Amino acid sequence: xxxxxxxxxxxxxxxxxxxxxxxxxxxxxxxxxxxxxxxxxxxxxxxxxxxxxxxxxxxxxxxxxxxxxxxxxxxxxxxxxxxxxxxxxxxxxxxxxxxxxxxxxxxxxxxxxxxxxxxxxxxxxxxxxxxxxxxxxxxxxxxxxxxxxxxxxxxxxxxxxxxxxxxxxxxxxxxxxxxxxxxxxxxxxxxxxxxxxxxxxxxxxxxxxxxxxxxxxxxxxxxxxxxxxxxxxxxxxxxxxxxxxxxxxxxxxxxxxxxxxxxxxxxxxxxxx
Length: 273
Hints:
By secondary structure, the chain is mainly beta. The protein is 10% helix and 35% strand.
């Protein structure tokens, strides 16, 4: 029979000291390995525009770092600009990979600023082709981003006449789909509280006269048609019937009514015997 070796401890104090020493060594080794694998850093700040300050509760933004050469390297840093502040620093540690090439952008869930935009050495831009690529394997400082102002598209999402939101409410997304080659898409989530018949929405889209927006709702449920499109003559089921909104302008009254799957109330024809 093969012999086995065991370490015997004379008392609990010696055992606990040995266990703690092993844990400390493991933490040191893990930190050493992490420093080898993650050695490059990108750092900067996220700013509000025009000297604005964050309202009560702050403004939450995600900073996304994407390696253009790999679909598997994507880092997200959650940042909150505190109440009364106009900026907040961020930093991210990256894999030490000289073959990587990083794009940095912000993603903002809200209605007051353009939803996403990229870092550029000439200033924050919502246009992907204008983003500045950062070579991997080295540190980058002052990679600053500013939340962009834009144009507004606003309206109301309503249920069909005679219907109210059920217990638990109903969730929708409203999407401004850019049909130009620039792809300045924007969307926002809306929630219709129980017992209500409508809710307002407000989108901030990039300010560019080259954009063309098709507005739609997306419904998460089974009681209504999943997608409907804004038209000046009423909400339409087919995207080809949508009214296109030219970019560079503010719009209000861009309202839609959720389309029912069946007319309601639905009357069945009498059965002739």
